[in-house]
Amino acid sequence: MGRQPSAKPTSFDIAYLAGVSQPTVSRALRGSKSVSAATRANIQRIAQELNYTVDKNASSLRSQRTHTLALLFFEDPNPDESMINPFFLSMLGSITRECARRGYDLLISFQQMHNDWHVTYQDSHRSDGIILLGYGDYQLYLTKLEHLVEMGTKFVRWGSVSEDGIGLTVGSDNVGAGEQAGAHLVEVGRRRIAFLGDASDHAPEFQDRYDGLCRAMRAAGVEPDPALQRDAVSSEDSGYAAARSLIEGGQSFDAVFAASDLIAIGAMRALTEAGLRLPQDVAIIGFDDIPAASQTTPTLTTVMQDMKGAGTLLVDALLARIDDRPVEERILPARLIRRQSTAV
Amino acid sequence: MGRQPSAKPTSFDIAYLAGVSQPTVSRALRGSKSVSAATRANIQRIAQELNYTVDKNASSLRSQRTHTLALLFFEDPNPDESMINPFFLSMLGSITRECARRGYDLLISFQQMHNDWHVTYQDSHRSDGIILLGYGDYQLYLTKLEHLVEMGTKFVRWGSVSEDGIGLTVGSDNVGAGEQAGAHLVEVGRRRIAFLGDASDHAPEFQDRYDGLCRAMRAAGVEPDPALQRDAVSSEDSGYAAARSLIEGGQSFDAVFAASDLIAIGAMRALTEAGLRLPQDVAIIGFDDIPAASQTTPTLTTVMQDMKGAGTLLVDALLARIDDRPVEERILPARLIRRQSTAV
DNA sequence: CGCCATAGGGTATACGTATACGCATAATAT
DNA sequence: ATATTATGCGTATACGTATACCCTATGGCG
């Protein structure tokens, strides 16, 4: 242990010991084929022995490639700032793993979207590309995204996938998921299905889920009632408020499709408080399958997104974009998880 | 928008426009006092206009400071590899925020602790220091930590704080928290209190919590029964198994203190399946206050750690260590959250 | 009125790597 | 046997910044 004279070895040290020039060391270690197998093996052995590591900064400076991706969470400024949407957190695991697998580092930030966050990561050569995650008011960020595109910044976004979107988007099949949820509710005999979640341009994902619901209802010969839709952002409080509004609206309903589990959990509280029995009086479906969803009473039927696939696909897509390769797949299937809240 | 000839401006460009030399630009922007106020203001204005950003790689290469911290999660290899302990995830928010506040970037990794993870981050100049987070088998990592110390790597660890520990540790007051839990259980009339969690050198934090529990019991004149302790790692399955073992052990018990919420949730399942009523027959307390804890039936009494403070303190301590300043505070208070699972 | 300290900033260079070229030697073609 | 190409590597240099050192003008001081 600690044999080295404490100074970290450079490629020159390796070169000297191997009896070659410094560039040859560089070539050997990064797999250039213009170096003989014997020379390469020798260099690798020596590097190993000296615990040599390529200096990341020097390498990045010279090659203009950082082999680092930046992950940016953006959410509406939250009163409880320490709360992060659990859904995105669960994506973090697969993203870090995929980055590691591809030999990329991951830089992470929850900074509010201040004026120059894109400059921070791109122009200062901190990362080769950016992964954007976030619910929140979509419209607010559109101009920023356009700016990113203009600057030639490479990025991917998690969200509602559409061909005409800005930049590159990867996401779940929200419409299909909404259809599954709607079909399931119809199947268990519900006809008056409410939707809790913004159904506007501000939240395309939620809108897609609503569209899917409507499609499934119509396919079953049921006409959705617009009066049963209430706006809500993804939080318990918002779900609670939306459900209260629904109850006070006086319209009858026998099912609720919440655009997220947090909304659903808030709604369940409001419904229970109003004396409604779940699922007998009102069946309820959430979205995301957060851990808490299997702990609620009744346990919550929800839609599980493919988080592992999501991380992989996001990283894949971004790396493809960075290398100017075409991106192949962008939509991930989602799966309905049946639990007690819709049990007949 | 997009006014510049697309090439990113360098400090030479700024220097030329400001009529000064490149080093002066560097000095001005990093606040050296050997630059006049007027010159500095002018340089800053021009830099702003050109959207100039200091190149991170060049800067780090020259100064040998990256202004980046690395966050390393280590956990026992998990069958469900996409699952990350929710407790640590909630710390992530405060760590990223504190890093941002201090002008540091955060590099993140969930890589298994392979042979050379320390080399990866330290010797390749990716980060100035490392934050280590993880439950898992403590002993397994000791030699690695010793190695880190030998190499002069700067790091902090979240865990059980003790003066003789290896490296620098920041953590909650686990003993105090255990005492609070124990005192509460005694207060609601329980005497036969079981503990679920490793009580060995392998998990010092869990042991501290157990010690606190025992201390509180003895303070109330109750002698803890070693037969009521069961090993468990932080997962639902492990908690379930531990509770099963406890039930099958045949010893009577009227309360369970679980070393983590995940253990508690698994245990609740086992207890309920065994026909025991919560909290009438068995009161139960968890640890961590994960979101799911407020959704269980009954809702789970637990210990909330100061996650926001934790992130701040970890980053503070690490930066102090990096700058060779003394570290001031290292222990954070924890707070008991009373819910239905211990309601009299 | 000369001396020295100080402010303000220029000159030269180092940080450690990757790449454009050039130049041998050996292998193949003609 | 000469021209041609590929192989394997060395030489020179660029990436963009930060810092050690040097120089010039001032102003205070005796």
UniProtKB/TrEMBL annotation, chains A, B:
SUPFAM superfamilies referenced in this protein's UniProt entry, alphabetically: lambda repressor-like DNA-binding domains, Periplasmic binding protein-like I
Domain HTH lacI-type: 9-63
MF terms in GO: DNA-binding transcription factor activity; transcription cis-regulatory region binding
Alphabetic keyword roster: DNA-binding, Transcription, Transcription regulation
PANTHER family in UniProt: ALANINE RACEMASE (PTHR30146:SF120), LACI-RELATED TRANSCRIPTIONAL REPRESSOR (PTHR30146)
Name of this protein: LacI family transcriptional regulator
Annotated source species: Sphingopyxis bauzanensis
